[in-house]
Amino acid sequence: MAIDKRKVVYQIYPKSFKDTTGNGVGDLQGIIQQLPYLKELGIDMIWLNPFYPSPQRDNGYDISDYTAVNPDFGTMADFEEMIATGQELGIDFMLDMVLNHCSTDHEWFQKALAGDQYYQDFFILRDKPTDWVSKFGGNAWAPFGDTGKYYLHLFDVTQADLNWRNPAVRKELFKIVNFWKDKGVKGFRFDVINLIGKEEVLEDCPINDGKPAYTDRPITHDYLQMMNHATFGAEEGFMTVGEMSSTTIENCILYTAPDREELAMAFNFHHLKVDYKDGQKWSIMDFDFEELKSLFHTWGEGMSEGNGWNALFYNNHDQPRALNRFVDVKNFRNEGATMLAASIHLSRGTPYIYMGEEIGMIDPDYDSMDDYVDVESLNAYQIMLDEGKTPEEAFAIIQAKSRDNSRTPMQWDASKNAGFTTGTPWLKAGKSYPEINVETEKEGPIFTFYQELIRLRKEMPIIAEGDYTAAYTDSDSVYAFERHLGEQKLLVLNNFFAKEVELTIPAEYVDGQVLISNYADTRIANTITLKPYQTLAILKD
Ligand code: GLC
Q1: Where would I find the Glycosyl hydrolase family 13 catalytic domain in this sequence (predicted)?
Q2: pLDDT at 417
Q3: Strands, sheet with 45-48, edge to edge from the N-terminal-most edge strand
Q4: What is the model's pLDDT at position 451?
């Protein structure tokens, strides 16, 4: 079923959005309270990270009960109120489905451990572990009680991979998806969904930590089709997005082309690895513009030609803030934030805004390792020390790369804890909150620019539906692309650097009109000088 390509999604990390009870953890009532703010921004749908019961080893991605609300976040009645209030305002919800693994606290795993064979077949148990490396460090297998067997955990040791080969597992998981669909949600984000298809015989794979052995396996497409048919497939306009770890364009076309009946769109992360030295996350390096530009072009054109559909984003709960990675944030925060926004909101795909992005939030600038909570960061810090890095070196890397960078409390105002909670926040607010917060930013250049981008996508079919082709591919500072729909054309120029750059404008655009720019008074002529971090979109009818 076709989705509405004019829609824009806003991601809320519930734990850090708005606390109304004073327990230091955000809650569903906090989301209800702030829906009018999001309505003002203009978004259509909210993706919520997991709010289900969980021991919180991985902040809710370790689910112990799939069809309930964690009491820290509220009740099922709050959830229903949230859906209903959203509907009144024209805002729908997309829930996070973590179906690759469950918490080892889940009753399925507990029953399996206690010897129940029916539930043992829910997990991936083997007599001998393979050499695969867990995404959170260490070997991906752990002893299964005292049975002498091992269970697979591609993530934390408390996140046991589920056995999708077992039809009883698929039946349970589809039931969960339907449970939430029947509650009125209009979208799902499927966590690491391209890892669900495991081979029958699992083998050592020394390449890339074992990823090729379990990523994008062909059977994954079969499972997605089964899920589509058993759950959301017949719902008009239902929004589904798969989080695709280390994937390929070929697979993402298969995952998202409408006639495949799998998902509506896919997240990939290649463009967020352009500041990884030698492909390693735990390193520090300036971003590689050539790489970023070429990835955007290959994916933009590849998905356009193959009739696939991208989810467009720079920020989420697993990424440091894009402003700290791609922009001279000290001198050009406003210009950089608006340019980054235009570079995806005018592109082909569905744009996602991560909470706080619309007010230009930045990394928290913590002073000590004690401020970090995330299991991945804590593990990585220890591994770096073990490998011989000094505490200062390891800390500098955590500061730049930790997932906690984006999980800090939403900055509502300049009062204590950024107006997020009256209690003690589960994670400290970023240092910038006295200056950067909703109160100071709401009439400001970043928020209002986002409002305009969202409005333009709704009004202009060329933005929502047009094709994508690369432009100015030789430029060493401008990422540019064209969109086409019928006779109409749109040229989007994005200067990714703090220096001015002169460009010759193609003759056909010289009498075009400025659709949007983050600098006032730009006149179109044969040559244009783009200012630092300028974005400029020229429409030719
Ligand atoms: C996804 C989530 C991440 C989580 C992991 C394991 O990558 O975005 O936050 O830790 O899956 O569920």
Answers
A1: 11-407
A2: 98
A3: 265-267, 239-243, 187-190, 92-97, 45-48, 9-12, 350-354, 311-312
A4: 98
CATH architecture of 9-101+167-366+406-453: Alpha-Beta Barrel (3.20)
Q: Which residues, judged by CB distance below 6 Å to any ligand atom, belong to the binding site of ligand 1?
A: 58, 61, 98, 155, 191-192, 243, 317-318
When computed from its CA atoms, the radius of gyration of the chain, rounded to whole angstroms, is 23
- The catalytic residue among 27, 72, 156, 243 is 243
Q: What are phi and psi of 289, to 5 degrees?
A: -65, -40
The pLDDT, as a whole number, for residue 469 is 97
Distance CA 201, CA 140 (A): 16
The token pair at 486 is: 């019928």
Which residue has a Cα nearest atom 4 of ligand 1? 61
Q: Which residue among 19, 191, 376, 482 is the active-site one?
A: 191
Ligand 1 centroid vs 491 CA: distance in angstroms? 35
For 350, half-sphere exposure in the C-beta direction (CA atoms, 13 angstrom radius) is 28
Task: Give the pair of three-digit tokens for residue 355.
Answer: 């909470």
Pocket test for ligand 1, best of 57, 58, 214 (most atoms within 8 A of CB): 58
Q: Is 265 helix (H, G, I), strand (E, B) or coil?
A: strand
Q: Delimit the domains of the chain by residue range.
A: 9-101+167-366+406-453, 102-161, 463-540
Only one residue has tokens 């804890």, namely 417
Answer yes or no: 191 catalytic. Answer: yes
Residue 243 appears among annotated catalytic residues: yes
Predicted confidence (pLDDT) per residue in 319-346, tens digit: 999 999 999 999 999 999 999 999 999 9
Round to whole Å and give the CA distance between 348 and 539: 16
Q: What is the pLDDT of residues 362-410, one digit of tens each?
A: 999 999 999 999 999 999 999 999 999 999 999 999 999 999 999 999 9
Nearest CA to ligand 1 atom 7: 192
Q: Whose CA is nearest to atom 2 of ligand 1?
A: 191
**The model's pTM:** 0.97
> Which of the residues in the chain have pLDDT under 70?
1
For residue 403, the ligand 1 atom closest to its alpha carbon is: 9
Angle at 164 between CA 160 and CA 166, to 5 degrees: 110
Separation of alpha carbons 383 and 402, rounded Å: 14
CATH class of 463-540: mainly beta
Q: Do residues 413 and 392 make contact, with C-beta atoms less than 8 angstroms apart?
A: no
Structure token digits, residue 96 = 């996070």
DSSP three-state, residue 77 = helix
**H helices of 307-428, where?**
322-326, 329-345, 375-386, 391-401, 404-407
- The one-letter amino acid code at 451 reads Q
